[in-house]
Each structure stands twice: as structure tokens, then as C-alpha cells.
Amino acid sequence: MNHESTAAVKQARQLPLRRLLTLAALARKQMKGGSSFAAALDAAAEGLPSHARAALQSILYDIMRNLALTGALSRKLLNNPPPPPVLNILEAALALLVTKRYNEFTLVSESVNAIRGDQRTQRFSGLVNAVLRRFLRESDVLLKELSKMPEVRFNAPSWWIEKIRAAYPQEWEKILLLQRQHAPMTLRVNLRRTSPTAYLKQLTEAGIPARQIGSEAILLENPLPVHDIPGFSEGDVSVQDAGAQLAAHFLPVKAGARVLDACAAPGGKTAHLLELNDCRVTALEVAPDRAELIRETLERLGLSAEVRAADAADTKKWFSGEPFDAILLDAPCTASGIVRRQPDVPWSRRPEDIRRLANEQKRILEALWPCLKTNGQLLFCTCSLFPQEGPLQIREFLARHPDASMKPLGETGIGMMNLVPTEDGAWPNPQWLPSVHDGFFYALLQKN
Q1: Annotation-wise, does 371 bind a ligand?
Q2: Model pTM greater than 0.90?
């Protein structure tokens, strides 16, 4: 999981900003062509040292969190759009001017230099200079006017806004506004090595402000690169959203049980299951490179599991015929609940993706149900806010399977849970749920 940090921004100031803007424009070109944020970042950052990659990633996050605004600004400030390489750099510069991470004079100058540095775009350097300086003169009026547009206010396309509004008529504005913010950096304490109380003391002694927000969840007030986090390399903690940490608690696992983690990369939930239980876990991941991430996670934590690169729904290729005591299915979804961490999601998804991914979830659920023992339990979870990828999926599954029943999730007493992104509230609370988390859905099914 990637996190922005103040250190990355400071390091960016020591790098040629014109080069970072050029690389950011390249990444935007690839995203417009259909690449994911991660793939575009990997391609643009190829060969860069880690601090330069972190600086580029931070710029790309700023671009994606202000995508609707910079698009509206460029339409407002330009009579005719320039070629895509110029427009991409211009909109990147506008995003950074809005976030105020850089000195205005330096940013304008380096943006113009980035345009001049390419023979194909150098004739537009005057235009870019004029547009950016006009924005600085008129920014208060422009931002006030454009913020009235729903797409700009929530940084999401209109169809996305309407889907969230329909699903959460009372909370939709709060959800959308919260998803514009930077993601919190939450750690999961490895109870096999330490305790939340002891680890908080360690952070205090290191001068790192933090607080407990869940049973094993510690929130860092200021994000850090993972290798600067005390005890990370030794396996004392992992980076994982507090809402995602509920999965290992909601799936009942007895000592010695055989457990399947069906869509396991990058391995956070697999590791948490093993930290809490003396069990045997098989972790599946369809992409071999992502399966390797699971192995790396387990190795850092000193844990072991059977890790296989396989399609969970293609049981003929991996299932031995011996049913599992428990199954965790963190199903593919739109990721609509984790937009703070993946700000490109509203822009990279299409309305039809909701139904397409719900069908993929159904395919995996149907394939895995025969792999579960009688009286065994399957925890279905997604990081989605859309009902088709949560409550509706489970209701339809129960209607098709008379041998399935819903069980309470931990101590909550409920069988299905929609967690919307939350940034406030005290912990511990009566439900013992984390007080800061992203959006998730959970349902626990038992095979009768």
C-alpha cells in the first residue's frame, strides 16, 4: 500500500520540478489511455530513485484529487485546448498551485521550462506562462465560482455522485467530501510480537504522535515512509486500514483449522489471520506478481502459509477436494470505499463496471461454496460502497442457497455491515468498531 508523506514533498523540492511535471504528464497520458494509477506510476517512475518516485507519486495524488477542478479551470482559461502533452503539464501545474505545496513563482517558472524543454511543445511556453499567471491573479474568484459545480466540489463524475447519493441519501455529501481528503496512515500491531499499549509507548519515546483507533489499529498523525516506522522491518507492525482489520476478527477460526484466503494479495488479511490464530492458511492470488507480494509480507512478519497463483473460481486447478473450515473472500470490486487511497477510482471506473464486478463476485462465490465444510463459515467482504457489490449480492446468494444462513459479525450482533468512510468518533465505542476507517462491506455466511 502506498502513502504520501511530508518527506516526499520536501524531497521533491530538491529535484528538478520540470522533470517531475513532465513525468506526471506522461503518467496522465497513460491513465487517459486506460492504465491504472499504479501502472502509470510504475511506467513514469521507471529508473527513478525511491525519493524521486515518492515525489512523483505525491504530485500524481494532487493531480487526481483535483482532476475535476483543473479540467474546469483549463476550459475556463483557454479559448482552445493545446495539444495533450501541453494540457497535461498545464493541469498538473494548476493542481499544484491549488494545493500550495510549492512556491508559486518556482512552480510557474518550472512549468514553463518543462514546456520549453520539448521541441514539440516549446512554442506553447508563452501560453502556459500566461494561463498560470492569470490563474494566480483570479484564483479566489475562479475557485469560488467553480466550487459550485458538483463534479468539482466532490471531484467525481456526475454518475458516481448520483450512485453514492442513491445508496446513502443521508450521508452522501459527507462521504464524497471525506473521500477528497488524504488517507490516514493506520498500522496493525502484530500481537505475536507486541501490544498496542507497548507500541504506542515506543512511538511516544521516538517522538512520533499517534493514537489507538481500533483493537490493534494505531493511527500515525503524520504519515511516514514504511522503513522509518519503528518496528516495521522487524514485523512488529503492518500498514492496514482499521476497517480492513475487522476481517480477521469477523471470521471465526479455531486452532488447527484449514482456512482459505481466496483473493489474498497483498497479504494483509492473510497475515492478520495468522497473527490471531494458530491455523493453516492457503492464500490464492490470480496474478503471479501479486502472489509474490503475499510471500514478501509473510516473510517480513515471520509467518507461513501456502501461497498459490490461481484463479479462486477455477477450483479444478487448485482445490484438492478437502473442504476448508473457513473461507475469507475479499472479492474484486469497484474500490468505491477507498477513494482516499486511490483517488483515480471515480475517474477510471464506468457505470457498467458495478454490474461487471458484481457478476465476477457471484462467479467466485458460487465456485467457493462447495469448497466449504458443512457448518463452516465464509466471510464475504469488499471495499465497495455500492449495494450491488454488498447487500444485494448476499441477499441474492442466500435466495439461491437454502443451505446458507447469515451469522452475526463478531460482537456486533448483525449479519451484514456497511462501513462508510469515517474520520471521527471515539474509540473504544459501544460496538468496539474502529473510529477511523475507509468504506467496507462484511457478511458472514454459514453452510448448514
Answers
A1: no
A2: yes
